[in-house]
Specification:
mainly alpha, two-stranded antiparallel ribbon, about 190 residues, about 0% strand, 7 helices
């Protein structure tokens, strides 16, 4: 290996080593933010699934940390909850993931990975909003699939989708505004 190539490898290793603590803190921070979002829950009439701020944290995790980091933060969140820490809206434990909100929760890592596509450099506002909406749709698909297993189609339509549409549109707009503001601050 020539000296220029060796220097490039050394610089790349140094950059990775100095970024690692920040990445780990970001992953843990967004796992914690998701847990806090779970505690900000609004019960909705006619559904056992509360409206929480968890999806905002999931989408922000992807938009800020990128696909891998965002997904990792949600895996950390789910692992903490499955281990029994009270990070879900009504507690913790592995059995919680088998309840009515389990499908939504298990979709968080995939949704965060998709939300990471919203922060691709040069992506338009519309394109970013579209990826965030797709990520939110993945959360709903996970939840709906699990609700269908638990209670059939009637439960899915009445409790899994309709009550959340307006709030979810507002969540996408909020995440988009925060992510774009953060990108502008880093660029400027």
């Amino acid at each position: 290996m020539n000296s220029e190539a060796a220097r490039s490898v050394h610089i790349a290793d140094a950059n990775t080593a100095t970024r690692a603590p920040g990445v780990i803190l970001g992953i843990l921070g967004f796992a914690l933010l998701t847990a806090v979002g779970a505690r900000i829950a609004v019960p909705l009439p006619g559904t056992v699934v509360p409206m929480t701020l968890q999806p905002v944290a999931v989408l922000l995790a992807g938009a800020v940390l990128g696909s891998r980091g965002g997904a990792a933060s949600q895996v950390a969140y789910l692992a903490a909850g499955a281990a029994g820490l009270p990070v879900f809206a009504a507690g913790g434990g592995l059995a919680y993931l088998l309840g009515p909100t389990g499908g939504y929760l298990l979709a968080f890592p995939v949704a965060a990975a998709i939300a990471g596509l919203a922060s691709t450099p040069g992506r338009s506002w519309f394109g970013a909003a579209l990826w965030l909406a797709v990520a939110l749709g993945v959360i709903h698909l996970g939840g709906l699939a699990w609700l269908a297993i638990l209670g059939g189609e009637a439960l899915v339509a009445s409790t899994g989708v309709r009550p959340f549409l307006l709030g979810d549109a507002l969540k996408v707009i909020l995440v988009l505004a925060i992510a774009r503001w953060g990108q502008a601050r880093r660029a400027g």
